[in-house]
Each structure stands twice: as C-alpha cells, then as structure tokens.
Sequence to fold (281 residues):
Amino acid sequence: MRAYKGIRSLVKEIEATKRQGKTIGFVPTMGCLHDGHLSLIRKARRDADCVVVSIFVNPAQFGPNEDLKKYPRDIKRDLGLLRASGVDIVFAPGIKSLYPDKFSTYVDVGDLTSGLCGASRPGHFRGVATIVVKLFNIIKPGIAYFGQKDAQQAILIKKMVHDLNMDVKIKIMPIIREKDGLAMSSRNKYLSSQERKKALSLNRSLESAKDLYKKGERDSYKIIKKMQGMIPQNNGTKIDYIDVVDIEDLKSVKRISGKTLVALAVKVGKTRLIDNTILGG
Ligand code: PAF
Fold:
C-alpha cells in the first residue's frame, strides 16, 4: 500500500496504473473508518484492479457551527485497516493541497440539495459535490463507491456525474448496521451510552415504516406520524426531519407509488444522526 499526501506524485502513479490498462475503484472517505467504509472497500477490491481510498475531512462541507474541529480523526488506525483490507493507494492530503489560497470554484447540483439534509445544512452538498469532483479529477476512477446511509449525497452524486458527463460509474452500497440496528457512522463515537440507546429509535422507526408499508399503508403522512411517535422527543432528542420522498427527484410524496425513500435526521444530544430505507419499486 502506498500513501500519498501530495497530488503530483499520486497523479504519476495513477497515470502509470492507467497505462497498464488497470481499472481503478475509488472509495472517498473522511477517515475514522468503520465497517460501512470497509464494505465499500471490499466491493472495490472485488471489482477493480487497483483500489484507491481517500481520507480527507473536507472543510467545505461543514457549516460554521458544525463539528469540523472535533470530527473524529485517527489516521494511524485508518492506515492499518486499509493495509489489512488490501488497499493499493491511500490519498490523505492536507487542506492546502485541495483548497489552496484563492480557491473559488464550487459545484452546485441544484434542486436535489434543497430538501432533507440540505435544508438544515445549507452549503453542505455544495462542499460535497466540489470535493468529489476534485477527487475524481485527481484519481480518475472507473468506479466510485458510496454508502446508501448518505442517500441524498449518493443520489446527487449520480445526478452530477450524469449532468457533467463524467466518465465514472457510481455504485451505491447498502447501509451497514451494528448488531442492534444502529446505522454505522463515524459520528456514533460522539454518543454516550444513554444517547446510543436513544439512537436505536431511528432504525426502529424505519422498521415500523417498512412494516406499515408491507401491511398496505401508502399514505406518507400516516407513516411519518407513526415514525414520529417512535422517536422519544425529550431529554435532548430532537427530530430534524422525517420525510417520504421520490427516490429520483427527492421531492416529498403524499402517497407511495414507485420507489420511495424514507429518510430522517435526528439530533441525539449534540450528535446529528441520519438513516433511511427504501420502500416500493
Ligand atoms: O460521505 C463522506 O464521507 C463524505 O461526504 C465524502 C463523500 C468523502 C466527501 O467528503
């Protein structure tokens, strides 16, 4: 495994890899790796000749009052996990490499970014889209892997790749959960044991949505109401949103007909958690 901080030497290796006709599978991450990330890497390992992973806590996707400074970082542990997973190349640049002074160009995917997490995290998806384009331009992957947990991110990256005629296939991989159902996230580290118990209500509410759907319920309002009732809104737990949206345009739907995303964000203590499930289709 080769680790790069600088862009120039990485690009040399990428170009040599491409000249050999090897396919590149790319997993972008912000580090603090967990099994969710490792499942993407395992898939990339199966699909591609050369697996590249980036570790970069991207300041452009954090709002002024968000957790950029305290976002968990553990590069030593991450490198060990990546080595053990058979990764070929790690790109872990410093901020100035990707955002040099006078950097001023951003990518805005438009409508898809206005609802769900975009509504409470203005500018977040502009930061995500911008860094993903930059990483794609540097690494030039044939395939890139994203997790379904960040459903809105995954959908808008697919849209961006389509709109900008980018030559990369996007694969969305299933949510990986802890044994008790909590969706894996680097931010789970922030939770106290009490908060972690409360956080289980996110997946439970999604399970109840699936259950209602299986029993024939198609009214989004009723599904949302049931989910709201399952998330105890006290002692510092607060629902940011629960929404039932079309899987392509992410607009709220009153009735579920086609493939539909049920997504939620809940603040448990100071930690904002997201989760989702897909119904229908
Ligand atoms: O999902 C993430 O970890 C980040 O949003 C990503 C895609 C690595 C961009 O910084």
In short: The chain has two domains: 2-173, 186-279.
